[in-house]
């Protein structure tokens, strides 16, 4: 089985990037056709409307892709990611719902870039003080951030708490038969939109990964001190990871708000953040396809088997524990391509058809020996303990 | 189910080593020389120095570093001249690595200063210090384990890159040009340090000697004016040490200035132009190797014997 998977990935890696996208076309077409085919066994009906279930899974996948930048690539444990999703959803609500005190009704296409900028800025604001911290501290502060966003939604009057916002803008357009493409009752159009957005986001993420940006992220994840001492402006690239992750989170928030048409304070709690994290860890952090798979499973399985909501977490908990024992790197292991023209480079080196960079999860190096366990923080401008001051 | 750790690195077919090696073997002498010259040329960067060869490149000026009650460096001053290989030696705990840590901004000096071409590094951000022109390797190897050898070196070249995040997102022309050049330069560097045959392997999968050389390649990729090597020969066999000495001389001949911390005296005496000796954080000698070896204070610090070439393991 393992050899088989290796064979597949080898075959896949030997293809040029355009060829890989060529192979993706039928896969994407199949995914687009899935709700129409509504295949027995796979379908979530009669429990849950299949297009809606697929749409929710797609939004979940988009969230996982964004969170993967922060956790999987830059290695920053962000436990408050739901905050960005919420900010995106509330931005859409405030800018288009008649319940909003702003009194504007922007179309969805205008809302999307605004929401992405707003979440990006909030990512930078959250990151600027906190990304000087490392490890556990960062996790705690981001956890706090998620809670703050939720509490604001609960308690700030213009955000309407439990009452929420109705009639949030959705994209326009009709099918030939006159029914709207994007509606609350039929999620088909929204699902298609979500899949297209995922494809575009993946394309951009691939560009980032195969650049100095992706390399800086992986370097920070592997050994932050060594990265900085190899000339990587680590702090700046960590903020970029937060900002880009946040923007994708905001985008998924607007998508979700538009489909449901309604936003209130009910959906943005810590358990939701935990599910996002579970999707990334389950699928394989640092692997874009992996986290999509993880998100799909986390979102789809409860819809398909319709078990009690309370059991939902129990089952995922057990599944995660089992996974961590047998496959700690997630369903698909970490995998990255960090050079824009790496394929050509390796082929020139080792001849056509030779393997491209083998990939896989390696335990990240820890601080050791000649460098202090934690290098005192540059940005704080400290001098050695006890010295100077 | 399979045990997790062994999953991937070994999975994909290991790249055949034939391509590059064979093409090198099949070159005739003239082609070979041309090839080597090309590698050398792309390894030696064009840099603007404000000091001439033989003048002071790096000035360590009255450097004192205290960790609580412990004085790791005590009023240490010395110069590194452009184009030389300076050996920084001393018994364990003398403060050699601490000196490197100050030079690269890991610690800030309690007092004193370090100046590269007259610019103070003491308060500069770490990545800025690298961009200003100091690069280092680590006493304990610190590579990016999940990256290939080639990718590790390309991270070093990124220190000189100017592509912005939007530029990378949209694959703008500068990004594409820098990527192309970076891979070529990184390949040349891997060849220069002699590990190009494993360019596509994960850093953690490389043999120990390769990892040490990879660290040197990554440091060189940042185009430093000054290269600091912290015990590069540690754990090497005699023949590996000779090869390393050769490499260090080659690096100097390519226009780099090198500071080397090393315990192995054969390596030290084989490559260095001058020596600075530290003991308990104090500088006890400074001069050409032959004089320093006979310096009574140095001999005492090493409890005799140790400084002899023959006694080196
Ligand atoms: N972060 C730190 N906190 C406290 N003491 C430190 C710290 N770093 C180094 N020291 C101490 O400073 C002294 C000098 O250490 P350093 O690592 O510079 O020695 P070295 O010359 O590199 O020795 P070696 O040859 O063993 O590598 C040692 O006594 C060490 O214990
Ligand atoms: Mg040391």
Number of strands of chain B: 10
Main sheet characteristics of chain B = 6 strands, mixed
What would CATH call the class of chain A? Mainly Alpha
Helix content of chain A: 55-70%
**Oligomer type:** heterodimer
- CATH classification, class level of the domain at 53-133 and 224-313 in chain B: Alpha Beta
Query: Which parts of chain B are unreliable, with pLDDT below 50 for 5 consecutive residues or more?
Result: 1-22, 309-313
Most strands sheet of chain A: none
- Report Rg of chain A: 22 Å
Q: How widely separated are the two ends of chain B?
A: 46 Å
| Number of individual domains of chain A | 1
Rg of chain B, Cα atoms, Å: 21 Å
Q: Give the total of beta strands of chain A.
A: 0
Shape of chain B: globular
What is this entry, summarized?
With 389 residues, chain A is mainly α. In chain A, 61% of the residues lie in helices and 0% in strands.
Describe the structure.
The model of chain A is unreliable at 352-369 and 380-389 (pLDDT under 50). Chain A has 14 helices and no strands. In chain A, helix 3 packs antiparallel against helix 12 (288-305). Chain A has one domain (46-172, 179-334): ABC transporter involved in vitamin B12 uptake, BtuC (Orthogonal Bundle), CATH 1.10.3470. With 389 residues, chain A is an all-alpha fold. The longest helix of chain B has 21 residues, at 173-193. Chain B contains twelve helices and ten strands. Chain B is α/β, with parallel strands linked by helices and 313 residues long. The radius of gyration of chain B is 21 Å and the shape is globular. In chain B, strands 6-7-8-3-9-10 form a six-stranded mixed beta sheet, with helices on both faces. Chain B has a four-stranded antiparallel beta sheet with strand order 2-1-4-5, with helices on one face. At the A-B interface, helix 1, helix 7, helix 8, helix 9 and helix 10 of A face helix 1, strand 1, helix 3, helix 4 and helix 5 of B. The complex binds adenosine-5'-triphosphate and magnesium ion (MG).
